[in-house]
Design a protein that fits this description.
The protein is an all-alpha fold. It has one domain. Helix content is 71%, strand content 0%. The protein is built from 10 helices and no strands. Helix 5 runs antiparallel to helix 8. The radius of gyration is 17 Å and the shape is globular. The termini are far apart. The C terminus is likely disordered.
């Protein structure tokens, strides 16, 4: 697929975004860490869904429509789709209470945790070792690391997770392959792996495992 922009233009968008929203990245990272603590402490499922909704609306409106659209006309569509994902989290998770976040035993818990570490810690390190320097890097709050983070948290959601919430994050993980191969965003290979593994765990029951959650193990102990 031929892209309507080249690699320098793509990274320049990151730079403009990061300089324009600073210190928003710090706030978004703090929110992400707070979400992990909320899940581990089993405080508020609706709060987790609400912040996920905020993150996806932020990406759709601020990044896609505000910045990425300057080099890619398709960003208008991406922006609308990301906002739709945010609305889905708000409707199903906040208003509907359809998401219950726990720390599950087995593969879902372990891999979900690894994806959260990848999104918040390993992704910026991989970007650094790939030669990308701030501000021309994808910080948390931009689509790829935030999609990894979302998939990690959805792995910590008690099944069954509404499948409509998986469609856009999994589709965007496939987009990461294009960015990695055509634009040299090699850290996005982690997004591709995250999509493949989390898709298997959440959509194929035999892969998802089971077992008690952390809260259930504590009550039994």
């Amino acid at each position: 697929m031929n892209l309507p922009f080249d690699s320098p233009q793509f990274f320049a968008v990151f730079a403009r975004y990061n300089l324009a929203v600073w210190p928003g990245q710090v706030v978004l990272n703090a929110l992400a860490i707070a979400l992990v603590m909320v899940v581990l402490r089993a405080w508020s499922d609706r709060a987790v869904s609400g912040v996920l909704a905020l993150l996806w609306v932020w990406m759709g409106v601020v990044y896609h429509l505000g910045f990425f659209r300057t080099i890619n006309p398709a960003a208008s569509i991406f922006g609308a789709v990301f906002v739709l994902q945010g609305v889905a989290f708000a409707v199903l998770g906040v208003a509907g209470g359809k998401l219950r976040f726990v720390f599950p035993a087995g593969a879902r818990g372990m891999i979900g945790g690894l994806l959260l570490v990848l999104a918040l810690v390993a992704y910026p390190l991989l970007a650094y070792f790939a030669g990308h320097r701030y501000p021309a890097v994808a910080t948390f709050g931009l689509p790829c690391p935030t999609t990894i983070f979302t998939l990690g948290l959805l792995l910590w959601a008690a099944p069954p997770v509404p499948r409509v919430l998986l469609l856009i994050p999994l589709a965007w993980s496939a987009v990461g392959a294009s960015a990695a191969l055509q634009l040299g965003v090699w850290e996005d290979l982690g997004l591709v792996v995250a999509g493949l593994v989390s898709g298997l765990l959440m959509l194929v029951p035999a892969w998802g495992g089971g077992g008690p959650t952390l809260a259930e193990r504590r009550s039994l102990g």
